[in-house]
Amino acid sequence: MRLKDLAASLGLSQTTVSRALNDYPEVSDTTRRRVKDAARKTNYRPDPRAMGLATGRTLSIGHVIPISTRHEIVNPIFADFIAGAGETYSRNGYDMVLSVVADVDEEQAYRDFASRRSVDGVIVHGPRPDDPRIALLKEVDLPFVVHGRAGSGDADYSWVDVNNRRAFERATNLLLDLGHRRIALINGNEKMDFAGRRRDGYLSALRASGITPDPALMSSEEMTEFYGYRVARNLLTSAEPPTAFLISSMITAIGVRRAVGEFGLRLGCEVSAVIHDDELSYLRNGEDVPIFSATRSSVRRAGEICAEMLLDIIREPGQPPIHKLLEADLTIGMSTGPAPGLDLARR
Amino acid sequence: MRLKDLAASLGLSQTTVSRALNDYPEVSDTTRRRVKDAARKTNYRPDPRAMGLATGRTLSIGHVIPISTRHEIVNPIFADFIAGAGETYSRNGYDMVLSVVADVDEEQAYRDFASRRSVDGVIVHGPRPDDPRIALLKEVDLPFVVHGRAGSGDADYSWVDVNNRRAFERATNLLLDLGHRRIALINGNEKMDFAGRRRDGYLSALRASGITPDPALMSSEEMTEFYGYRVARNLLTSAEPPTAFLISSMITAIGVRRAVGEFGLRLGCEVSAVIHDDELSYLRNGEDVPIFSATRSSVRRAGEICAEMLLDIIREPGQPPIHKLLEADLTIGMSTGPAPGLDLARR
DNA sequence: GAATCAATCCAAAGCGCTTTGGCTACCACG
DNA sequence: CGTGGTAGCCAAAGCGCTTTGGATTGATTC
After folding, report:
1. Parallel/antiparallel/unpaired status of strands B183-187 and B244-247
2. DSSP 8-class letter at B48
3. Pick from A304, A333, B109, B333: CA 20 to 30 A from residue B318's CA?
4. Euclidean distance between CA atoms A259 and B95, whole angstroms
5. Nearest-CB residue to B116 (from A47, A67, A101)
6. Do A39 and A1 meet the contact criterion of CB atoms below 8 Å apart?
7. At what angle do helices A193-208 and A164-177 cross, to 10 degrees?
8. CB of A43 within 8 Å of any CB in chain B?
9. Cα(A77)–Cα(A62) distance, integer angstroms
10. Per residue in A84-99, pLDDT tens?
11. Alpha-carbon span B214 to B206, nearest angstrom
């Protein structure tokens, strides 16, 4: 069923039918109703390609998903982020188009989106400080929202971010308050903006307590299970093992727990851990009582917010950049306890 | 840069330029080269909407991602499947368009893809026995490939599946060979086709060894971490606890391991476990030596195969359905050992 | 030398929609 | 009665591409 057929079957022109369907005012209410009823009855859907050609809009949003060429890892938070964003798109009549490319081709993927004009806007994932994609997207004039920030100078583009610095500062303080002095930071790859901010929060809390950070306690890598396992093992066999871990992701924390278990230690007893929990739907932090004490922020919700913001920007171009800083909340779970060897009376 | 501009700048007609770019024969080699060079130099990309309108093809593949309304869970294997499929699409000049919808709207999402003709084909995820989507897609004549199978009668549509029955039969036999007699099956939701086949494999192996299956040892649910934890706890506190677990996913197995650890038991010693490992990139089963003994089959690879198959079907319509049954391989890791109380000499 | 043919190219139609620029009634107003 | 305005509709142009149906040329064949 094409617009032409629908118009013919109603004895109307294409113009009128199109206007009726798109709620233009220059059509009588009775005609509009007649048209919409007929459209519903015949299950008519306008061809998005034709619509796009005529209007210039595509009613779709692009996401570039890089696959790291070395490890072939796809970021586990994508699934949930995309669930949140995708649902928002669907609700607003937008499609989501994904471009999965080797990370070395990532910029080209954005450039393609721009030059083909196949999407109305894009979301930028996993920004690094001074991320070149931001200049690129500004240059080609494609609306975008960044999930995260790209270093300082974040005023002139729109972003949605978690207050990573504050979250890790608070998490560190929680451990300090429990008497821990040797706190290991098992961070994500610090080439990523978010990981840098987390480190800053950790360092700032330590220094505020007069503790000199020990580089041996700090690590930074892609957040896999094995990374957590390996680093925790190494630290636990070291001369001065930490009494607590601050871990950047649930998955890495699972590796840490595995190592801790192999040493016959128990989380929350001999050794403590605080994690950052992205609230991934398939990896919940326990049911009622949290497995891990955690700073929490839903990545799914972040997806929704990014999507809404982007649609907003597309609908009303030319407005100043929008920023949204989400605060993570800190919940106490079963993985934290007072530092061992700490006389409770002394606390 | 539009086709018209490119043609004008070369002093050629649009026809010739279009044909040169699309490798039609009625264009001289020198002209073709001239055109392609100019296209590269000006970074010209044809507008996919216009192309689609003119050709009827869209050069994009649709995936419908349902969000379960109750648990709001997005299937964790999606990320890796989509990585595999998406990369294949990119390599072949196809886009991937995702439709994220509440699971109750799933059929409508496929119907929309069909009536708007916004994709050239779709992949069907997570089929249940007698899945209605298959009849639907046949009816609207949209090319598709099923990842998995939908019960019996799988001859008249194309699919890519893992031999789940055989995999779980072998895994069960491995445990039986180690002397285990009480083997718990912690299965996925058996409304799903794959989970039914896994149960069949488990039951078949038990019966072949003359063991009567104990319903108390069998569970079936969405494969979360907490599900594994809860079921394992219950089983371990029961009157006749199992000595081994057969677990449908890595994530669920992590929950089982957590429970096992809380009982002061060690996997591979007092209690054994075999899992099915989808080789998710962000949850590898150990680095060199596998954490869990496992039947393994890469879901990412499955994504690639599905994508290639679908593109094949789109390129050459009318060919008979294609089927691909992948065999999982069985690797021994650190989570299996002889049944406790078993005299090694008696083995 | 005329006819045939292959090799190259082009003008224009068409894909399904939106939107511009009318056109026709009809009514109100002075 | 003439003017102006408005409500409601339509024909046709145009979005950027592909493809049909020639046109033109130079070489080949009889």
Report:
1. parallel
2. H
3. B109
4. 42
5. A47
6. no
7. 40
8. yes
9. 17
10. 999 999 999 999 999 9
11. 10
